[in-house]
Amino acid sequence: MRLRALALLLAFSACGGDDDVFFDAGEVDARAPFDGGLDAPVAPLDAGDGDADVDAGIEPDLCAMEDRDADPRRVFFLGNSFTFTYDLPGLFRQLASAGGFTPPIVDSYTVGGQTLQGHRADSAANAGPARIPEGWDVVILQELSTRPTDAIGPAEQFKVDATYFHDLARDANPDGRVILYETFARRAGHALYPATFADPEDMQAQLRFHYDDAADEYIPRFTESVVPPNVEVARVGDAWEAQLALGEPPRLHGSDDYHPSRAGAYLSALVFVGTVYGRSTIGLPALGVDDATALALQESADLVTGATRPVPSVACPAGIEIGDALRIDFGPTSVAGWPSHDALEGSSGPLLDSTGMPTTARVRTVGFTGTQTGGVAENTLGLPAEVSTDTLWVGSFDGHEAALALEGEVMLEGLPEGTYTLTLFASRTGDDGGRGRLTRYALGEREVDLEVADNAERTAVFDEVVPDASGRVRVRVLVSPDGAGRFGYVGSLSLERTR
After folding, report:
1. Within a domain: residue 433?
2. 443: domain CATH number?
3. 384 and 239 in a common domain
4. What does each C-alpha distance from 271 to 5, 104, 146, 284, 324 come to in angstroms?
């Protein structure tokens, strides 16, 4: 298994990376929830009906069998700190998009320390009882991490409340799926051992039993939904147990031996990708971990999901044809047709071509200071407001001279040989007290300055761009020395292949 994974990783090395999915402190650091989107029936993806070709000794064309119409459009997480620590829903969204699936609309409602029983009693307009009846394609339910156990419990109450939310979800969308998030045991050495649980294996065994019992027995027996039950378990805790059996590092728990570390949250997100899409996670980008750690965690995720078929971006990467354009929206907001990249230091992708198919290309950023969403929404360039208003920025509140010592870099990787036109845009309202926001973009020896203050029409354009021998294009983003500004910005990028 691990040799197969290594071979796949080497074959598709463009899918690697080491994202940090969280923002450093910055000028403004806004996060927007994801809502809206298209409803569509959801079913796990499988290999299709290629048995006849296999029996005849003919390799089936898995790429021709890909069907994005079956991808879930809308996914909702309900839980507590085991869901919001390191933004598990956001990690899932990034990995699903990077896998070449239809980028899902992902939303969540989380309250620290909350039980499903507590969620049932929550009357807020954005709480579970109000949101789940909107008709999501996938609803993910996470219980308080000690309730589905015999030692603490009450496990029976967990099953009652899970049935309630299952019925809400299924009545709202008869084609929807309900997934129970099997959480993970405390780390060895936690205060719960050995007085409450003998050891982590004991705690995980109790969690596993009650999640399985809820999905296999209790909910099917006690559901009052008008449609048949459709509930399954995402075996996150089992994947943690399998990984921890190999020893540390990586450390999956945080410093409290309780919540997830970045590596733990990444493993949890991988299990959800494998569960929701029925695909191997090998080859997905590394988010918040290094490539070697990502591969080890992908193997543990695949071990518990049993998925072997590669995700579309790994199995069927597309080239970039003449006339095709890659587009990226830098910053925390998101809109269809403009893949979002919000990492101050990290990579994402694969980038999609103009038809929405995953390509071999990825984007990596380093050196940026923060994000902001204060750009001009209306523009003459036809950009969506979500693209026009948000940016990554680099600079210093200590003034122009201090800012000149800083720079960010945008690197496009995995580009086919050819010639491209690169167009960059950014906008930020106000002129920073008369200092202006003159930003310099440097590509090799070429430099273009762009005044970003209140920008609604200007772009920086580089013609005749040729990737280096490794398929890379590097753009430096910095405060222009020809101005007096403190900040430089990048908001969007378009790369069109011209020949």
Report:
1. yes
2. 2.60.120
3. no
4. 16, 16, 20, 12, 34
